[in-house]
Each structure stands twice: as C-alpha cells, then as structure tokens.
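During the no-cost extension, the postdoctoral fellow (Dr. R.K.) reprocessed legacy sequence entries with the updated structure-token encoder. One reprocessed record is reproduced below for audit purposes.
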Amino acid sequence: MTIRVALVDDQELVRTGFRMVLDAQDDMTVVGEAADGLGAISLAKRQIADVMVMDVRMPRLDGVAATRQICALPGSPRVLMLTTFDLDEYAFAALKAGASGFLLKDVPPQELLFAIRSVHSGDSVVAPSTTRRLIDRFVPMLPADEGPPPEIADLTDREREVLVQVAAGLSNGEIATRLYVSEATVKTHVGRILGKLGLRDRVQAVVLAYESGMVRARPH
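Re-encoded structure tokens follow.
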C-alpha cells in the first residue's frame, strides 16, 4: 500500500526537501502541497492524502486552526504536526485539535519516515520524550474540566491500567512487558479503549488521560 502524503509549509525549500525524502520511498508518494492552512483545508477536502505533514506557524491560517477544521471533515487525513525546537504551546493545541502527533522540524529523515508510517497505521507518534515534556508543561495550564467523561466508567480495570501506560508514552511492547501479557493483547486493549471513548488514536487517549486526571503532569 502506498501512503499518500500532503506537505504543508510556508517555506518552499522545506517542502522540496521533504518531497525528495518521501518520493524516494517505495511505500510513499507526495500527492499535494500547500503553503498555508487554507491551502491545507482545500487539499483535505479533495481527499487525496492519507497523512498531512503540517507546520504549526504559517500565514493566513496557522496549523492548529487548520488541523481543527481538517479533523472535523469526513474522511480527513491524519495530521502530523511539525514544531520548532522550543516546544511552544501551539504543538499541544494541535494535539487537542486532532493532530495524530508532532515532530521537531529538524528531525532526521528516518524519524520523519517512521512517524508518517506510524500515523498512517493508527499507532500515532506519542512515545518521544518531547511529547511527554510538552504535555507535562501545558496540561496544568488548561482550564479544569468537569471531571472525566462518563465513558471512562465503561473501561475495565485492565483497560484503565493500559490507558495509564499509554499516557506515560510506553509502546505496546513496553506495556506488554510491564503487565506480563502479550503485545497482541495490549493492542486489543488499546483498540477497545479508543472505541469505548470515541477517540481517533493514541494521542487523543494521552490528552484525555491527562485532562481527566487519570494521569498527573510531573511537577517542575
């Protein structure tokens, strides 16, 4: 299966570099480009891409606002957000808006390729320590919700246990080792968690676990 990728960045040189890397892969093809959020929404509406690699800061409409609109579309592509090294609040906002993960903009090519494949398969990019640091930093600043969603009550004890491990940034293999079960069993639990909570992927599960108070951000 060929993964159709759209590139969204206001710097043409960045898009050109990414295109060269992606088009060199047997399982990927770049199907469209845009220079801002409005162009990204237009691409998404045409339903030509499976994964959209999008910069956070762009003219006319930024990546967060674009992601929010794109993820509300039927048949929308999964969004992989690019952020700068300073890990600003836009990246966490992007996760809340529906992005399936984010990377630093100067990420090595192999990490970008791995992330695109992960997002396409639904596993999402949630394990890197940068993700956890970002969540640790910005979750305490979010307004307090009215507690966990009622659907949390539908989770079994083991599913809650798995959700906490997912929120800690552990992979399925790491969770399996920690809970003394098979990796296939963990994958089944994760699928049930997402289904019961009506979540798109692991990233949304992480955000919900923090917002609902199931997991606490580390103090600074």
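The longest strand covers residues 28-34. The beta strands are 3-8, 28-34, 51-55, 78-83, 101-104. The remaining legacy entries will be reprocessed before the final report is submitted.
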